[in-house]
C-alpha cells in the first residue's frame, strides 16, 4: 500500500496519495460536526456555544501534538527518500519517546490549569459549567490523539495514506453512533458528546498503533535502534519543535480570536461555533493536499530529484487554486443552508452572524490554499523556520486586526471576520517573495 512519490505522473501521484488523507480528515471533521450538530439541535444554543468554545481550546492544545507528529513525519519522509532504513527506525523510536513525553505533560497541565485557562478565555458564566464538564471529559482521550497522529504521520511519510483512512472511518462511524446513544438515549448532555469523541479517538489510535507494529515489522525498531542518538534527536527536535511552534501559533491565534468572540455574547459564540465547523470542512481538502505535497517534496528532496520538485510545485499550485475557487463559490451560494444544518430556523440572529462570517471567509479560500502549500514546501526542504514565520505573519495580522477593527463601532464583528483573509494574503505574498527573490535549495 506504500507509494514511492519519486516516480510516475506528478499530478496523478500527488492526487492519489492525497485522496485518502483528504477523506480521512473529512471523516475526522465528522467527529466535531457530529458533536456540534447533535448538541446544537438537541441541547440548544448555550450548549452549542460551550462546545464550540471548548473546541477552540482543545484544538490549540492538541495542535502541539499534531505539530510534533508532522515534524517527525518530515524526517521520516527524508529518510525514506534516502533509503536509510536503520536511521528511519531509530528516528521512529526517538520521535515516539519525545511526543509521548510531551503528551503526558500536556495531559497533566490541562487538568491542573483548566479553570485559569477558561477565565482567560472570558467564558460567560451561563455556559462555564457546561464547557468545563465537556473539556474535563475530552482530555481523557489525549492519548488516542497522540497514537493516531503519530502512526498516521509515519505511514503517510512512507507513502501509505490508505490505512489511516480506514481506521479513522471506523472511528467516525463509532463516534456518531455513541453521540446519538449518550446524548439522546442516556441524556448525558455535552459530556456525553465528549465521551463519544474520547472513545472513538482511543479506538482509532490504539488500532493504528497495533496495526503498524504487527503488520509492518519493517518499521518496528529493533533493540539496536532503541537508543537516543544525539544527532537524530537534534534533527527531529528541530523539525518537530518548529512545526509544533507553527501549529501552536496558528491555534493560539484562533484561541485569542475565540476570546474576542466570547466577549460579544452567546449568540455570536454559537454562530461562530457552527460557521467555523463549516469553514474548516470547506478548506480541509487543501490542507491535506498541502500535507501530501509536503511528503512529495520531502521524498524527492531526499532522492535529489530537483526538476521533479519544480514541476510538482507548479502542478500543486494550479490544483489547489482551482479547487478553492470552486469551494468558495459553493460556500457563498449555500451559506445559509449550511448554517441551518447546525441551528434551528427560528434562531435568526445566529443565522445572520454565521452567514456573514462564511461569505467573507469563503471568498478567499484560495489564500489559505496557497498558504498550506507554502507551509508544506518549506517544511519539506529543511526550512521549517520559514513555515513558522509565515504562520506568525498570518495569525499575528489576524489577531491584531481583529481586535483593532472590532473596536470600531461601524465595523464591529465584520472586522474580526475580515482580518482572517487579510492575514492569509500577507503571508502568501511573503512566502512567494522569499521563494522568488532569495531562492531555495532546489532552484
Number of domains: 1
Radius of gyration: 21 Å
> Which sequence of SSEs, written as H and E, runs from N to C?
HHHHHHHHHHHHHH
- Rounded average pLDDT: 83
Low-confidence stretches: none
Structural class: mainly alpha
The tally of beta strands, per DSSP, is 0
Question: What share of the residues lie within helices?
Answer: over 70%
> Approximately how much beta-strand content do the residues carry?
under 5%
For the sheet with most strands, the description reads:
none
For the termini, the CA-CA separation is 32 Å
What is the helix tally?
14
Overall, the morphology is globular
Describe this structure in words.
With 443 residues, this protein is mainly α. It has one domain (10-437). The chain has 14 helices and no strands. Helix 5 packs parallel to helix 7 (189-215), helix 6 (162-185) packs antiparallel against helix 7 and helix 10 packs antiparallel against helix 12. It is globular and about 60 Å long. The two termini are 32 Å apart. 53% of the residues are buried. Keywords: Antiport, Cell membrane, Ion transport, Membrane, Transmembrane, Transmembrane helix, Transport.
Outline of the structure:
The chain has helices at 10-43, 45-82, 85-120, 125-138, 142-157, 162-185, 189-215, 230-262, 266-303, 306-339, 348-362, 365-380, 384-406, 413-437. With 443 residues, it is mainly alpha-helical. The mean pLDDT is 83.
Amino acid at each position: 500500500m506504500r507509494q514511492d512519490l519519486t516516480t510516475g505522473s506528478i499530478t496523478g501521484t500527488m492526487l492519489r496519495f492525497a485522496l485518502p488523507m483528504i477523506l480521512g480528515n473529512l471523516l475526522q471533521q465528522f467527529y466535531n460536526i457530529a458533536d456540534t450538530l447533535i448538541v446544537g439541535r438537541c441541547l440548544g444554543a448555550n450548549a452549542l456555544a460551550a462546545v464550540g468554545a471548548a473546541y477552540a481550546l482543545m484544538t490549540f492544545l492538541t495542535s502541539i501534538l499534531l505539530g510534533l507528529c508532522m515534524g517527525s513525519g518530515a524526517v521520516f519522509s527524508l529518510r525514506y527518500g534516502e533509503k536509510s532504513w536503520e536511521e528511519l527506525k531509530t528516528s521512529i523510536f526517538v520521535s515516539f519517546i519525545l511526543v509521548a513525553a510531551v503528551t503526558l505533560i500536556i495531559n497533566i497541565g490541562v487538568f491542573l490549569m483548566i479553570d485559569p485557562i477558561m477565565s482567560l478565555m472570558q467564558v460567560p458564566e451561563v455556559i462555564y459549567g457546561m464547557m468545563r464538564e465537556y473539556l474535563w471529559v475530552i482530555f481523557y482521550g489525549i492519548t488516542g490523539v497522540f497514537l493516531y497522529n503519530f502512526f498516521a504521520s509515519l505511514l503517510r511519510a512512507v507513502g501509505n495514506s490508505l490505512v489511516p483512512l480506514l481506521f479513522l472511518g471506523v472511528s467516525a462511524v463509532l463516534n456518531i453512533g455513541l453521540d446519538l446513544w449518550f446524548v439522546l438515549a442516556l441524556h448525558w448532555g455535552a459530556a456525553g458528546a465528549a465521551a463519544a469523541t474520547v472513545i472513538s479517538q482511543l479506538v482509532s489510535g490504539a488500532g493504528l498503533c497495533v496495526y503498524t507494529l504487527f503488520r509492518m515489522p519493517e518499521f518496528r525498531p529493533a533493540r539496536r535502534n532503541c537508543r537516543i542518538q544525539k544527532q537524530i534527536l537534534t534533527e527531529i527536535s528541530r523539525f518537530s519543535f518548529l512545526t509544533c511552534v507553527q501549529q501552536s501559533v496558528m491555534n493560539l491565534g484562533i484561541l485569542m480570536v475565540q476570546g474576542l468572540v466570547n466577549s460579544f455574547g452567546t449568540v455570536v459564540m454559537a454562530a461562530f461555533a457552527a460557521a467555523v465547523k463549516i469553514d474548516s470542512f470547506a478548506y480541509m481538502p487543501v490542507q491535506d493536499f498541502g500535507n501530501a505535497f509536503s511528503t512529495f517534496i520531502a521524498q524527492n528532496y531526499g532522492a535529489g530529484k530537483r526538476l521533479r520538485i519544480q514541476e510538482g510545485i507548479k502542478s500543486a499550485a494550479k490544483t489547489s487554486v482551482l479547487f478553492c475557487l470552486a469551494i468558495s463559490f459553493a460556500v457563498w451560494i449555500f451559506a445559509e443552508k449550511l448554517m441551518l444544518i447546525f441551528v434551528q430556523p427560528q434562531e435568526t440572529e445566529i443565522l445572520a452572524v454565521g452567514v456573514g462570517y462564511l461569505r467573507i471567509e469563503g471568498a478567499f479560500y484560495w489564500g489559505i490554499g496557497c498558504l498550506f502549500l507554502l507551509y508544506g514546501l518549506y517544511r519539506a526542504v529543511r526550512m521549517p523556520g520559514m513555515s513558522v514565520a509565515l504562520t506568525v505573519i498570518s495569525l499575528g495580522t489576524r489577531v491584531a486586526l481583529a481586535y483593532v477593527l472590532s473596536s470600531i463601532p461601524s465595523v464591529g464583528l465584520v472586522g474580526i471576520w475580515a482580518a482572517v483573509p487579510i492575514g492569509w494574503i500577507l503571508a502568501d505574498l511573503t512566502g512567494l517573495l522569499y521563494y522568488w527573490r532569495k531562492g531555495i535549495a532546489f532552484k
